[in-house]
Each structure stands twice: as C-alpha cells, then as structure tokens.
Write a structure and sequence with these properties.
With 533 residues, this protein is an alpha/beta fold. Among the domains are: 150 residues, ANL, N-terminal domain (Rossmann fold, 3-Layer(aba) Sandwich); 91 residues, ANL, C-terminal domain (GMP Synthetase, Chain A, domain 3, 2-Layer Sandwich). Helix content is 26%, strand content 25%. It is built from 13 helices and 28 strands. The protein has a nine-stranded mixed sheet with strand order 4-1-12-11-13-14-15-16-17, with helices on both faces. Strands 18, 19, 21, 22 and 23 form a five-stranded antiparallel sheet that branches. It has a four-stranded parallel sheet with strand order 6-5-7-8, with helices on both faces. The longest helix has 17 residues. The protein starts with 21 loop residues before the first helix and ends in a 19-residue tail after the last strand. The structure holds malonyl-coenzyme A. Malonyl-coenzyme A binds next to helix 7, helix 9 and strand 15.
Length: 533
Amino acid sequence: MLLPSTRHLDAGATGVPAPATLVDGIVGRWADRPGAPALRDAADVAGSGGGSVAGHRHATGTWWTGGELDAATRAAGRAWRAAGLDPGDRVVWSTRSSVVALVAHLGALRAGLVVVPVSTGATGRELAHVAATVRPAAAVVEDPARAGALERPGVPLLACGPDLAGLPRRRGPGDGTPLDRAAPGDPALVLFTSGTTGAPKGAVLSHANLAAGTASIVAAWRWEPTDRLLHTLPVFHAHGLAVGVYGTLLAGASATLHSGFDAGSVLDAARAGEGTMFFGVPTMYHRLEASGRASDLGRLRLCVSGSAPLAAALHRSLAAHSGNPVLERYGMSETLMLVSNPVDGERRAGTVGFPLPGVEVRLAGGEDTGDEPGAGPAVVDGGEVLVRGPNVFAGYFERPAATAEAFEPDPDGGAPWFRTGDLGVEDGGYLVLRGRRTDLIISGGYNVYPAEVEDVLATHPSVAEVAVTGEPSDEWGETVVAWIVAADGPDEGALAEHAAARLAPYKRPRRYRFVDALPRNAMGKVVRSRLGG
Ligand code: MLC
C-alpha cells in the first residue's frame, strides 16, 4: 500500500525544488540576505569563548548574520584545506551546541570533508569503534583527552577544538581543491546508528540527501525567514543537526542555540516572544507539560516532536493547555525526515501524519513480521514501513552486507526500498506506527539497541547470561533494564561501574534484575518479550 505524498503542499503543487547540495542552498540564502540574523548562542552556552573561529569572532548572545556565517565558514573551509585535508577525508565532530562548532562543521562540508558527528557522551570504547570504522583524518573535540580514544596505532590524527585553533598550516591558502565543489552524490555526513548486531554502523548521507531531507520540511512546515527556533537539542544527532540547524539555515531563518534543554528556559523564551518554533523529543514535552506552564507554548507558531513516539494522552493535554497541538513527525538517521503531520489541517494524536514531499512510503504486506512467530507485534492490516526518495541514504559505511539487508527490491523493478524496521498501519492517509520488527529501545529520544548493551555486560565475569529490554516510562518513553543470570552472586554496583566505563549514559541500564534463567524458545534463543513484570 502506497501512502499519498503531496498533502503537505498547496493545491496543484507536485514537489519541492531542493538545491543540488545543502551547502549550495544555504550559501544562496546567505547571499540573498547577508544582513539577516541567523544563529546565536544563548547566554547559557558556556565555554564558546565568546565565539571565535577561523579568525571570526562574536560576543555570546549576539547574532551572527548570514554574511558573517558565509565568511566564517569559508575561512573554516580554507583552514581545513590548509591543514592538508582533502575532499572525502573524514572529520569526527563531537561538540556541544555553539555557533563556533557549527562554523567548523559547515566549513568542513564546504571543503568536501565528510563530517562524522558523535555524541559528547560517547565513551572511549564507543569512540574507538567510530575511529576504527571511518578512519578519521581529524577530530573536533572540546576535551583534547577524548581525541586520544580516536587515535589509531601509528596513524596521525589532527585534533582541534571547535574554534579550529591548533590546526596546522601545511599548505598555502590557494592550494588544494576550491571550496563548494562537492557533487550531489558525494558523501557529506556519517551518522552512527546501532543495529541488531550490536555494533553501531555509519549511515552515509550524501550532500543531495541532506538537501532533499531538509528542503521537504522547510516546505511542509511553511518555514519562513521570520521564524526563530528555540534550539535545545544536541547537535550531534539528526534531530538537532539536520532538522534544527540545517532547516533553519536553508529556510533563511534564525535560531538561538541553548547548551541543553531546560523546560523553564524554553517557556521563559516562548513567553518573552524570543522564538516562533520549538523542536523536541517526547521527554522534553513531558517536562514542559509537568511544569504547569505549558500555556506559554501557545506563544509559538509551531512545536514539533520526533525521535520517539509522543503519547496520544500527552499530545492531547498539551493541546488543551497551550491551544497549540504539537506536530508529530517521523524520521531516522538513514533517511532524515519521512512523514509529518500537517501545519495546515488536523495534527492527529497518536499518528505521525503523511509522507513528506518527495518521500514515498509503502507498507509491506500484512504479515506478522515479528522475530518470533506469534510473539512479535501483530500487524493485521499494515506492515513494515518501507521508504524511498532523494533523502534516503545509499548505505552503511563499508558494510555492503548490512546495506543489502536494509533494502528491499521494488516489486515493479523500480528503485529499492529502505526497510525502516518500524511497523505501521494507515488510517485515513495518516501513518500510525505500531511497534518495531527489531528490539530497539528508545529512551528520551535516543536509540538503544539491546544487543550492544548485552555484549558489553556479557564481558563482565559475574555475568553468566544477560538480556536487555525496555521498560515503559512516562518521562523517558522507555528505560533500559538488564536481566542477569549471575555466574557467582549478583553484584549490581560492579555491573553499573562496568557499564559506565563502556556505554554512553543513555545506554546504561537504569535497573538490574537478577533471575535464575532467561526464557528461551525451542531454538535456544532468548525471548525478550517474555521478560517483564
Ligand atoms: C540523559 N540521561 C538519559 C537520557 N538523557 N538516560 C536515558 N535516556 C536519555 N535520553 C541520563 C543523564 O546522563 C543522567 O544520568 C540522568 O539521565 C538524568 O539526566 P537529566 O539531566 O534529567 O537529563 P537531561 O540532560 O535533561 O537529558 C534529557 C534530554 C536528553 C531529553 C534533554 O536525553 C536529550 O537531549 N534527548 C534528545 C535525544 C536526541 O536528540 N535524539 C535525536 C536522535 S535523531 P546520571 O547518571 O548523571 O543521573 C533521531 C532521528 C529523528 O532519532 O527522527 O529525530
């Protein structure tokens, strides 16, 4: 079943013109309105040194205009070049939100480098896996000690802070390929996302994927230059980076970057008329509602939720208190944004809306696609959500087998479809997500794959067997629970310490349950759905 895809557009419109590359589009916007405010650090962004990068500086809290960002990102691109980096070289980028960090990022894209955003909470083990996979030539990190974990034996790594201070000068200013020459199909970004195998894979997004994935939301959400985003998401994931930052810049709009989420600060800013839009994960909306001040969100033009399912009850209570129904949308690192509720028209609680312009969405079959026959989520009149479009990535970094598995051939011989792993049904054109084919846990908008956490816990000597599941939580959506068969007596403290040294905070179990045995099926495989209670 193919879902209709042009419902976000004005009558008669059939598509959205996307620039050939994201950088083309953004630089064009800056050229159109060089004096328009674009980005600023909120006063709570500490340690950005008042904003200095590649010779360009700004006081915290003041606006960088499009013209200033153009000049600064060009200077940053030249600094990358002068350091000896060439198109296609990978740069790990692991920083908190700040204009300066984004200038380094956009400068790298202008230089044709491939940016690899990584969580600032990543542990040494997680950083080493990224480095072993993408073999970075450089790393942008706030704490130089973290660069050590990215070094590979005998291979030099250029490490610098978000301000690019410390990059060597190995070439003259005019040497190397000119800036802004990346072709649409060239890789731009590698977003790490886990898989059922446990080891995170790098989804490679091209410059054209970024352009298409951003242009569709700019059009569908009627994103105007007058819009101002209250930006509180981390910039190292698709939501904060591609939706929040790229969207703002491609729309020629502006955003205030906060160093993190604080419900009171968002509501104060909304009340003071400092923004027109807010994007968040359901945990943030839960906290905004719990503050008792959700009515302040009514001052905003648009509130968008994504990265995890927004409970229908929370959607309804927020709408009742703010008079402003949250627009829920659906996307993934591999595809950027796919489906969205409408700006004009009903934003239906419990649904993610209809396909964005340019995105094709198909529900495959009606079979029960759960892992265990009879034990998986029952999907009666829907199926796995399959997608294709100019926003969909081409594959995982140097993982041809995983890439092949992620796509399904088109029954009519057309372009292949990406298998999202999500199960859905259609209801009056709206997509309703009904669980997953895989065991993914989503905690506070972050994806946690049980296999990765299990692999880490299994290396502790006190663990004989382990299974990891998600437990429902009003605030977090789900939290991580580890079920342990102890080899020689339960030792929760030791396990928590072991996990803390190896897993980013959001992946660490919140609870350890010690059991005598794990439930297994006839094949000997652990049946996670029978753990609980
Ligand atoms: C923080 N903690 C988490 C957590 N975030 N634990 C589980 N899940 C999470 N998501 C830990 C902290 O380390 C801390 O541990 C404890 O929980 C309490 O921290 P807090 O101060 O209350 O949390 P806070 O820092 O306020 O973070 C909550 C949050 C954050 C919701 C603001 O999780 C967040 O920014 N989430 C956004 C995730 C995101 O950007 N996802 C997009 C992925 S892209 P301790 O041990 O110190 O007590 C994607 C595609 C798409 O999915 O479509 O969008």
